[in-house]
Amino acid sequence: MLIDFKDLPSEARIWIYQANRPFTEEELKEVQPEIENFLTAWTAHGSSLKAGYQMPYNRFIVFGLDQEITAASGCSIDASVHFIQSLEKKYNLNLLDKMNVTFKQGEFVAHKDLADFKKLVKNKSVSANTIVFNNLVNTKGEFTHDWEVPLKDSWHNRFL
User: Fold this and answer.
1) Residue 58 CB-density burial (10 A; 0-12 exposed, 13-18 middle, 19+ buried)
2) Biggest alpha carbon distance in the chain?
3) Full-model pTM
4) CA-based angle 9:101:129, to the nearest 5?
5) CA distance 133 to 37
6) What are phi and psi of 35, to 5 degrees?
7) Angle 74-91/25-41 helices, nearest 10 degrees?
């Protein structure tokens, strides 16, 4: 069952998929109905899942799931990963590679692999106050408060 992301409770489980590039406007017009159709039909053991999504910065896909009524199962999580893989193929982008860092440079959102990001830190091209996206958050509440954080306050601080 598709619901508006803002209507999910703060304890809703989330999954964040970051793209290696922003979606184009044309891609957004196609991908949003695809995501809505997937979430509308998403089930766990035959029960509908109450889920919503966001696409911040046209670069992330964030699924949120209210697990109070029905929790995600291994099969339903697998189905979501297969769906994300189908988007990767269709739009020729990477959404599942966790060895990348996405961060802000002013209002611009940049994306680098870990090795290049480490070089940026070493060269002082990014600082402890650079805003990074902490995709390890697990709940909507954490997403709201702890997703966009200074590098010094995230797991990325090990590169400082």
Assistant:
1) middle
2) 52
3) 0.94
4) 85
5) 27
6) -65, -45
7) 160
- Which portions of the chain are predicted below pLDDT 50? none
pLDDT 10s digits, 106-122:
889 999 999 999 999 99
Distance CA 31, CA 59 (A): 12
Which tokens go with 33?
Answer: 């109905």
**Residue 75: helix, strand or coil by DSSP?**
helix
Q: Is the dihedral of CA 7, 12, 17, 21 positive or negative?
A: positive
Q: Copy the structure tokens of residue 14.
A: 């989330």
Q: What is the DSSP string of 16-69?
A: EEE-SSPPPHHHHHHHHHHHHHHHHH-EETTEEPEEEEE-GGGTEEEEEEETTT
